[in-house]
């Protein structure tokens, strides 16, 4: 069959129109977080990378990644997601500022282990919290990741029980929950900006601090502190969020892929976090830090000292949402059994 010039031009025009419509219909997902992009060491970086590959591999959607705070801090990213400027964000502490009920996850010594936390967050409690926060914020929690358990370090003495914390000054985030926790444990909480922490430790403004192991090692804090206690006082969860308005604009098939990709991404982030924690514990010990793991009986002392004051303060802050404290306790008990 021979094509005339007119026929060929018509075909090209039709093809161009079709491509134009495809481009117009194609959607781009902007995915932002504050961690480094390195997927081998960064929990959010790894989660974002696998999310992008799954979504782009199974749909016509395009995913643009914005790591390392390129679009702002966590509070700003949450606001962008609510405004529909950035479609997907992965944040931790910022979530409780827009959905206060999420702050129950920060109650000290709530989760005895990471697998228990995963079971709670991936089960009925996590689904109910996600639905509650969706109603409050317009942000859909696609999945939960992990920022890790926080632990105390100091340069004065080994901490085995709360009694060992008496009189020690600990840098804490300027968050009332953390202040109440350290008070309950007998220490002296001192809110200091993150950027000022190394100098505060060096000059003795504070005796210690608390952070996940990976943060402690990657930022060289172990070089400024002699002792670490693996008490795991607060388990940090990541929230992989999407603008629900944007999510509803996707086709059912696209929604299914995005949801699946998010779950895989959350689990990938958890794995990287666990890996970096294991490496970090070995690394700080190899470089001279003394690391102590409290016994079950000692951890019970920490829990009994810290939880009452924090729960009392948090219940007052949450008001009608204080029921989430009891709901979490029951979910953890069930998961532990």
Automatic annotation (TrEMBL):
Superkingdom as given in the UniProt entry: Bacteria
Signal peptide: 1-26
Keyword presence, Signal: yes
GO biological process: transmembrane transport
Organism: Rhodobium orientis
An example molecular function term from Gene Ontology annotations: carbohydrate binding
KW Nucleotide-binding (keyword) present: no
Record protein name field: C4-dicarboxylate ABC transporter substrate-binding protein
Pfam families linked to this entry: DctP
Keywords: Signal
InterPro entries in the record: DctP_fam, TRAP_DctP, TRAP_DctP_sf
GO CC aspect terms: outer membrane-bounded periplasmic space
């Amino acid at each position: 069959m021979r094509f005339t010039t007119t026929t060929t031009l018509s075909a090209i025009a039709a093809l161009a129109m079709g491509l134009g419509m495809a481009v117009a219909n194609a959607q781009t997902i902007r995915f932002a977080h504050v961690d480094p992009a390195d997927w081998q060491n960064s929990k959010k970086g790894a989660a974002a990378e696998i999310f992008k590959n799954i979504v782009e591999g199974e749909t016509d959607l395009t995913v643009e990644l914005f790591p390392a705070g390129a679009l702002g801090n966590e509070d700003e990213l949450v606001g962008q997601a609510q405004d529909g400027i950035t479609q997907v964000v992965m944040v931790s502490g910022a979530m409780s500022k827009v959905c206060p009920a999420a702050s129950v996850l920060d109650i000290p010594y709530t989760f005895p282990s990471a697998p228990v936390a995963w079971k709670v967050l991936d089960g009925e409690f996590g689904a109910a919290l996600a639905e509650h926060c969706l109603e409050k914020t317009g942000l859909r929690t696609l999945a939960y990741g992990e920022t890790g358990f926080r632990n105390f370090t100091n340069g004065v003495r080994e901490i085995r029980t709360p009694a060992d914390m008496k009189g020690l000054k600990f840098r804490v985030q300027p968050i009332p929950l953390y202040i109440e926790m350290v008070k309950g444990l007998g220490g002296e909480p001192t809110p200091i900006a993150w950027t000022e922490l190394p100098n505060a430790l060096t000059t003795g403004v504070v005796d210690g601090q608390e952070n996940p192991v990976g943060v402690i090692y990657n930022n060289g804090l172990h070089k400024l502190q002699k002792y670490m206690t693996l008490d795991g006082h607060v388990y940090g969860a990541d929230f992989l969020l999407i603008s629900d308005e944007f999510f509803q604009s996707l086709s059912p098939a696209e929604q299914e892929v995005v949801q699946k990709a998010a779950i895989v991404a959350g689990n990938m982030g958890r794995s990287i976090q666990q890996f970096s924690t294991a490496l970090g514990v070995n690394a700080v010990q190899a470089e001279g830090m003394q690391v102590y793991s409290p016994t079950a009986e000692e951890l019970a002392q920490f829990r009994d000292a810290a939880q009452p004051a924090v729960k009392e303060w948090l219940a007052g802050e949450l008001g009608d949402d204080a029921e989430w404290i009891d709901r979490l306790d029951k979910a953890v008990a069930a998961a532990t059994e």
